[in-house]
Amino acid sequence: MGLLSKKDAKLITDPLADNNPITIQVLGICSALAITAELKASVVMAISVLFVMGVGNVVISLMRNIIPSKIRIIVQLIVVASLVIIVDLVLKAFAYELSKTLSVFVGLIITNCIIMGRFEAFALANGTWRSFLDGIGNALGYGVILIIVGFFRELFGSGTLFGIPVLGDPIAKTGLYATGYENNGFMIMPPMALIVVGIIIWVQRSRNKALIED
Amino acid sequence: MEHIELFFKSIFIDNMVFSVFLGMCSYLAVSKRVKTAVGLGAAVIFVLAITVPLNWLLDQYLLQPGALAWLGAEYADYDLSFLSFIMFIATIATMVQLVEIIVEKFSPSLYNSLGIFLPLIAVNCAILGGSLFMQSREIATLGLATTYGVGSGIGWFLAILAIAAIREKIRYSNVPAPLRGLGITFIITGLMAIGFMSFGGMLTGGDDEETTETETVQVKEETEPKVSLNTLEESDNSETINEMSKVEDKSLANNTIK
């Protein structure tokens, strides 16, 4: 990262681990859990949020001096909503099947707390370039967790990754299935998303003791 | 009948928190105390009950393909559904602001208990989610939309109440240090969601008789998941610690918490 100063680089690397929006700041959980049964949906969601956050943070940061503070929430919501409409229309045009899977959760990017949280905490007080980096960093941190959860849920739940079988054929009993391995159908169920995220938090906090709560 | 079915369906089967994970941010952030959880839960019921029917009207007479036909035949071709996100969120944000002003004016005591939570609610995904699900499930009438709004609000209320009660208890349990706080809350919510999955079969019966039967059963079951979870968490070695801390002085109790 020769382009970025050390301070700027930190804006991107921090949210990836020690200040992760999902596991540490507890923001944006809703969509993170609902659509992670498949890796493909997780990746698309991560990219959508990356776009909305990057552009949104820049727009809010450009407008920060002219937004009256009393109506800033509505202004922020309108900015995000317009960006999300773009994402939604693009998805419907180029990946219709996937946009059906994501259903209302594309729309729910609007109320994704990460976006509002970063607008409030960062973009309203910082310059455009730094806000952009902060947006990208937090969206990446969000995406990383989404992809980890999606990876484990799809691998153990249906034995595939991106829809491609990686563990052999469960019906013809080839590959790993020949040894008696079975898919854990429970991993696709919604409750397991919560438990997988819980375990990620557990692992992260046992590796970094500073993050442990009271 | 239709109303009762939708009502119970939106509370238990399609529970906002446990089956579609909406409103998780405030669910996790404001569930440390039962009292505040009740305040936020009540505010969510209130706002959902207002915004879902309002957005239903918007959807029906403005946004759906052909919804503008009431203006005249030449408008029948318009399809404004791409505007629904922005319209819904604007409605919600203004309604929340309006409700806040009205409640402050006419009922200061209610404002004191709900007031601080109302601004939080504009960005609660459960509220926007309620409207978006109302749209995608094509709910047929205004009455049903209201029922759906109230039902999902009550479902969310129940969920945050249950987790807040469990979190108050769990402070006395011996949770592994890295799991404390957020981690264990996630796992408990997961277990509760598994419990709520058992409601899935509740409304499968086609006959009127069968549905009334299941409804009475389900009222009893409603408390069960909470109880079983409570015992589950405390049944291990934590129970002895729990008793110990009651017997010994406060400083020991504080140690076990920390």
How would you summarize this macromolecular structure in one to three sentences?
Chain A has 214 residues and is an all-alpha fold. Chain A has nine helices and two strands. Chain A has a two-stranded antiparallel sheet with strand order 1-2.
Tell me the layout of helices and strands.
The complex is a heterodimer of chains A (214) and B (258).
Chain A: H1 6-13, H2 29-34, H3 39-63, H4 72-94, H5 96-102, H6 104-107, H7 113-123, H8 128-158, E1 160-161, E2 164-165, H9 190-207
Antiparallel strand pairs in A: 1-2
Chain B: H1 2-13, H2 24-29, H3 34-63, H4 84-106, H5 108-114, H6 118-121, H7 125-136, H8 142-170, H9 182-197, H10 208-221, H11 224-234, H12 238-247, H13 250-257
How does this model look, in words?
The complex is a heterodimer of chains A (about 210) and B (about 260). Chain A has about 210 residues and is an all-alpha fold. Chain A has one domain (about 20-215). Helix content of chain A is about 60%, strand content about 0%. Chain A contains nine helices and two strands; from the N terminus they run H-H-H-H-H-H-H-H-E-E-H. Chain A has helices spanning about 5-15, 30-35, 40-65, 70-95, 95-100, 105, 115-125, 130-160, 190-205; strands spanning about 160, 165. The two termini of chain A are about 35 Å apart. Chain B starts with a helix and ends with a helix. Helices cover about 70% and strands about 0% of the residues of chain B. In chain B, helix 1 packs parallel to helix 8. Classes of the chains: A mainly alpha (about 210), B mainly alpha (about 260). At the A-B interface, helix 2, helix 4 and helix 9 of A face helix 2, helix 4, helix 7 and helix 9 of B.
Rounded Rg of chain B: 21 Å
Proportion of residues in extended strands of chain A:
under 5%
What would the principal axes of the Cα set say about the shape of chain A?
globular
List segments of chain A where confidence is low: pLDDT < 50 over at least 5 consecutive residues.
none
Largest sheet of chain A: 2 strands, antiparallel
Instruction: Give the number of DSSP strands of chain A.
Output: 2
Low-confidence stretches of chain B: 206-258
Rg of chain A computed from alpha carbons, rounded to a whole number of angstroms: 19 Å
The main sheet of chain B comes to: none
How would you state the average pLDDT of chain A, rounded? 81
- Quaternary organization: heterodimer
How do the strands of the widest beta sheet of chain A line up side by side? 1-2
How many separate helices of chain A?
9
Helix percentage of chain B: over 70%
Largest interface by Cβ-Cβ < 8 Å: A-B, 49 and 52 residues
Count of helical segments of chain B? Answer: 13
Q: What is the CA-CA span between the terminal residues of chain B?
A: 51 Å
Tell me roughly what share of residues is in helical segments of chain A: 55-70%
Beta-strand residue percentage of chain B = under 5%
Total number of β-strand segments of chain B?
Answer: 0
